[in-house]
Design a protein that fits this description.
Distance between the termini: 126 Å
Number of helices: 2
Largest sheet: 2 strands, antiparallel
Structural class: alpha+beta
Helix content: over 70%
Shape: rod-shaped
Radius of gyration: 40 Å
Length: 115
Protein backbone atom coordinates (compact mmCIF):
# COMPACT_ATOMS: atom_id res chain seq x y z
CA UNK A 1 0.00 0.00 0.00
CA UNK A 2 2.92 2.28 0.50
CA UNK A 3 3.54 2.22 -3.25
CA UNK A 4 -0.11 3.05 -3.91
CA UNK A 5 0.02 6.17 -1.65
CA UNK A 6 3.18 7.37 -3.33
CA UNK A 7 1.58 7.08 -6.79
CA UNK A 8 -1.48 8.96 -5.52
CA UNK A 9 0.72 11.75 -4.16
CA UNK A 10 2.67 11.93 -7.44
CA UNK A 11 -0.58 12.21 -9.37
CA UNK A 12 -1.84 14.88 -6.99
CA UNK A 13 1.44 16.83 -7.35
CA UNK A 14 1.21 16.54 -11.13
CA UNK A 15 -2.31 17.98 -11.13
CA UNK A 16 -1.25 20.84 -8.86
CA UNK A 17 1.69 21.62 -11.14
CA UNK A 18 -0.57 21.59 -14.21
CA UNK A 19 -3.08 23.92 -12.50
CA UNK A 20 -0.23 26.26 -11.53
CA UNK A 21 1.11 26.23 -15.11
CA UNK A 22 -2.40 26.87 -16.48
CA UNK A 23 -2.91 29.84 -14.13
CA UNK A 24 0.49 31.28 -15.12
CA UNK A 25 -0.31 30.80 -18.83
CA UNK A 26 -3.71 32.55 -18.54
CA UNK A 27 -2.17 35.41 -16.56
CA UNK A 28 0.64 35.80 -19.08
CA UNK A 29 -1.85 35.65 -21.97
CA UNK A 30 -3.91 38.44 -20.36
CA UNK A 31 -0.83 40.58 -19.70
CA UNK A 32 0.88 40.20 -23.11
CA UNK A 33 -1.07 43.01 -24.87
CA UNK A 34 -0.18 45.46 -22.09
CA UNK A 35 3.46 44.35 -22.13
CA UNK A 36 3.54 44.79 -25.91
CA UNK A 37 1.93 48.25 -25.72
CA UNK A 38 4.45 49.25 -23.06
CA UNK A 39 7.29 48.02 -25.27
CA UNK A 40 5.97 50.02 -28.25
CA UNK A 41 5.55 53.12 -26.11
CA UNK A 42 9.10 52.74 -24.78
CA UNK A 43 10.50 52.50 -28.34
CA UNK A 44 8.52 55.56 -29.42
CA UNK A 45 9.82 57.51 -26.41
CA UNK A 46 13.40 56.46 -27.23
CA UNK A 47 12.96 57.68 -30.82
CA UNK A 48 11.46 60.94 -29.58
CA UNK A 49 14.37 61.33 -27.15
CA UNK A 50 16.87 60.79 -29.96
CA UNK A 51 15.09 63.33 -32.16
CA UNK A 52 14.99 65.88 -29.33
CA UNK A 53 18.70 65.34 -28.56
CA UNK A 54 19.54 65.97 -32.23
CA UNK A 55 17.41 69.13 -32.15
CA UNK A 56 19.12 70.34 -28.95
CA UNK A 57 22.53 69.80 -30.59
CA UNK A 58 21.40 71.72 -33.67
CA UNK A 59 20.02 74.60 -31.60
CA UNK A 60 23.22 74.77 -29.52
CA UNK A 61 25.23 75.13 -32.74
CA UNK A 62 22.83 77.81 -33.99
CA UNK A 63 23.14 79.65 -30.66
CA UNK A 64 26.92 79.46 -30.88
CA UNK A 65 26.84 80.84 -34.44
CA UNK A 66 24.56 83.70 -33.39
CA UNK A 67 26.80 84.52 -30.42
CA UNK A 68 29.79 84.67 -32.79
CA UNK A 69 27.83 86.96 -35.13
CA UNK A 70 26.91 89.23 -32.20
CA UNK A 71 30.55 89.37 -31.15
CA UNK A 72 31.62 90.20 -34.70
CA UNK A 73 29.23 93.18 -34.82
CA UNK A 74 31.88 95.09 -32.88
CA UNK A 75 34.10 94.83 -35.98
CA UNK A 76 33.68 97.92 -38.20
CA UNK A 77 34.51 96.00 -41.38
CA UNK A 78 31.94 93.32 -40.62
CA UNK A 79 29.23 95.95 -40.03
CA UNK A 80 30.12 97.59 -43.34
CA UNK A 81 29.92 94.22 -45.10
CA UNK A 82 26.45 93.61 -43.61
CA UNK A 83 25.28 97.09 -44.59
CA UNK A 84 26.47 96.61 -48.17
CA UNK A 85 25.28 93.05 -48.71
CA UNK A 86 22.04 92.88 -46.76
CA UNK A 87 20.80 96.47 -46.91
CA UNK A 88 22.35 97.44 -50.28
CA UNK A 89 23.91 100.57 -48.77
CA UNK A 90 26.69 102.47 -50.53
CA UNK A 91 29.06 105.21 -49.47
CA UNK A 92 28.51 108.80 -50.50
CA UNK A 93 30.03 109.47 -53.93
CA UNK A 94 30.52 105.75 -54.64
CA UNK A 95 29.47 104.28 -58.00
CA UNK A 96 28.19 100.72 -58.12
CA UNK A 97 28.06 98.76 -61.36
CA UNK A 98 25.59 95.91 -61.68
CA UNK A 99 25.57 93.47 -64.56
CA UNK A 100 22.12 92.54 -65.82
CA UNK A 101 21.96 89.40 -67.93
CA UNK A 102 19.14 88.93 -70.42
CA UNK A 103 18.23 85.74 -72.25
CA UNK A 104 20.84 84.91 -74.83
CA UNK A 105 22.44 88.36 -74.69
CA UNK A 106 25.53 89.53 -72.89
CA UNK A 107 25.06 91.64 -69.79
CA UNK A 108 24.43 95.35 -69.88
CA UNK A 109 25.81 97.68 -67.28
CA UNK A 110 23.61 99.70 -64.96
CA UNK A 111 25.13 102.62 -63.07
CA UNK A 112 24.04 103.64 -59.59
CA UNK A 113 25.27 106.91 -58.09
CA UNK A 114 25.23 107.64 -54.41
CA UNK A 115 24.12 111.11 -53.43
Amino acid sequence: MAGHDSANENGKGFVQNMICIAICAVTLYNQLPQIYKGFLRMRKLEETGTTLNERVTSEKKRLSDLQKEIASLDDVFYREKLARNKMRMIKKGEIIYQLIEERGEKGEEEKTHAK
